[in-house]
Amino acid sequence: MNKKVVIVGGGYVGTELAQSLERYCDVTLVERKKFFCHAPAMIRSLVQPDLLEKALFPYDKLLQRGQVMQASVMAVSESGVTLENGKALAADAIVVATGSSHDTAFKAPGASVDDLRAANRALAQQIEGAASIAIIGGGALGVELAGEIKAVRPQKHVTLVSDSSLTDGYDPRLGQGLEAKLGLLGVEVITGQKAVDLPQTRGAFAGPVRLADGREIAAELVIPALGSTPNTALLDPLPGVEKTADGRVRNDRWMRPSELPNVFAAGDAADNGDQMTIVGASRQTPWLARNLRNFLAGKRMDLTPAYGPWRRPPLLVPLGEHVGQSILPVVGLVGSRTTRLVKGRDLFLPKYRKLFRTG
Ligand SMILES: Cc1cc2nc3c(=O)[nH]c(=O)nc-3n(C[C@H](O)[C@H](O)[C@H](O)COP(=O)(O)OP(=O)(O)OC[C@H]3O[C@@H](n4cnc5c(N)ncnc54)[C@H](O)[C@@H]3O)c2cc1C
């Protein structure tokens, strides 16, 4: 009889893993939402609203042999998972790929894609109506959002505030290049300054905003872009689980977050040594697919090669369709032309149309 694998979470890890495993074992992917929401497009959709619907993919054609079940998982154990309706799904191996949460305008909270639609449209209108905008956070999201707004609404005054250098944690040349290009687009970039006394860290609000050095930024609209929150609720109660400073669950070198030998975790929820990005997850998924097959065939995980994260983490950062700066695997730092060809032009939407067989 085929071995059973239950994957919790149909995000970037869960969908690709389910597709690569369904030929070899009995796969059930449990996802609470009706649609996969392609996160990078949620930034550009704020200035190009027709993009939003093009970035939502139904799960019905994702798998041909396995099944996608629309439900929320409430608990994970060595024997399988329990759904919110109390039903138990037995499994030989369980993968927790529950990802992370963000502001509702960028990522659906819980099961409701309608909440994401409404929040994304509302923020798009606020951006449209504001003459001056401050974005707080110099990670990829904040940088990209500043660039996307300024690329199509050059008349708006956009300020980007970061308490570190831009895209901190990556090759410093990436942040330097992005800062220079944002400057050319007309974005005012303030680095090394913390925005203080923010009334909230999720969701836009009316400015002004104060900086630690006492300066005040007189923005009509302030958009916090302060990082994702890992969804670890299913992993936290498992025996032997440890958390990292950024709230992820620390995995062993074979992607196991706890003492349970058949429970695996990947993507944003678990720390495998990669950043919380799609490109980080894209290295983990093929490794996990290969090693799960070995595990299900009865091989001891600790006798198979351990996972090795990206040594120089890649990141692609478009600033609108035409400008950008990226770090790619193998080739390293690339500029606007390559960033546009690889990501800026179509935000990888053709890849997801193919994955979800929607055209
Ligand atoms: C606006 C934005 C833009 C981004 N752009 C980029 C980019 O351009 N490039 C890049 O590399 N990274 C980007 N990222 C980061 C990227 O989105 C994450 O790294 C990625 O989503 C992580 O994938 P994942 O599979 O771990 O989890 P997720 O994609 O977060 O998916 C987790 C899934 O699990 C489901 N789930 C959670 N709990 C349960 C449960 N209990 N039961 C059932 N289902 C559950 C959720 O509904 C969700 O669908 C962006 C992030 C944001 C917010």
Description:
- This protein has 359 residues and is α/β, with parallel strands linked by helices.
- The chain folds into 2 domains: 4-32 and 71-102 and 228-303, 3-Layer(bba) Sandwich (FAD/NAD(P)-binding domain), CATH 3.50.50.60; 113-227 and 314-355, FAD/NAD(P)-binding domain (3-Layer(bba) Sandwich).
- Helices cover 28% and strands 25% of the residues.
- It is built from 9 helices and 25 strands.
- The chain has helices at residues 12-21, 39-44, 51-54, 113-129, 140-152, 172-185, 278-296, 336-344, 349-355; strands spanning 4-8, 26-31, 35-37, 56-58, 67-70, 73-77, 80-83, 88-90, 93-96, 100-101, 132-136, 157-161, 188-190, 195-196, 205-206, 209-211, 216-217, 221-224, 229-230, 249-250, 263-265, 270-271, 315-319, 323-328, 332-334.
- The strands form 8 sheets. It has a 5-stranded parallel beta sheet, covered by helices on one side. It has a 5-stranded mixed beta sheet with strand order 13-12-11-18-15.
- Helix 1 runs parallel beside helix 7 (278-296).
- The radius of gyration is 21 Å and the shape is globular.
- It starts with a strand and ends with a helix.
- The mean pLDDT is 97.
